[in-house]
Design a protein that fits this description.
Layout lengths: L1 H21 L7 E10 L3 E10 L2 E2 L5 E4 L8 H19 L6 E5 L2 H13 L6 E5 L4 E4 L2
Parallel strand pairs: 1-5, 5-6
Antiparallel strand pairs: 1-2, 2-3, 2-4, 6-7
Helix pairs in contact: 2-3
């Protein structure tokens, strides 16, 4: 029981730290992270990982088979997955995330932002570029 309380407290602290470091207006209690995987250039899958209060929420994880994009086009694939995810949340009246995290660099960040803008969603969005170990935003 105590371990559980400790984990909850760590999650809360992480969320508060993230809000401060990213200068967010609202605590990022729900974070949705998007990534694209290509298996031998054929099967492309979008992954959605969800965190609530700084802790993984595995029952909300999703995988999206990329349907419309042919060939390897990371930006277009991210746009397809983003559009499908957030159109569905909007149509079902479900809770939107407080922060969208994109695996990739500036190009991926801009690609996802275009879709969010087209859906009239003003969600904070950042990307994490592994090679440069940079966190990017469009502020």
């Amino acid at each position: 029981e105590e371990v559980e309380e400790d984990e909850i407290e760590k999650g809360r602290k992480a969320v508060i730290d993230l809000k401060d470091k990213l200068s967010l207006k609202k605590l990022p209690e729900r974070i949705e992270a998007l990534d694209i995987s290509n298996i031998q250039g054929k099967l492309s899958v979008g992954s959605l990982v969800v965190f609530e209060e700084g802790r993984p929420k595995k029952k909300d994880y999703r995988r999206f088979r990329v349907k419309r994009v042919k060939g390897i086009d990371d930006y277009a694939m991210l746009q397809e997955v983003t559009e499908r995810r957030y159109k569905r949340l909007l149509s079902e009246g479900k809770k939107l995330p407080d922060l969208v995290l994109v695996d990739g660099g500036r190009g991926q960040l801009i690609a996802v932002k275009k879709i969010l803008d087209s859906l009239n969603l003003e969600l904070p969005i950042i990307s994490i570029a592994k090679k440069e170990e940079e966190i990017l935003s469009l502020k």
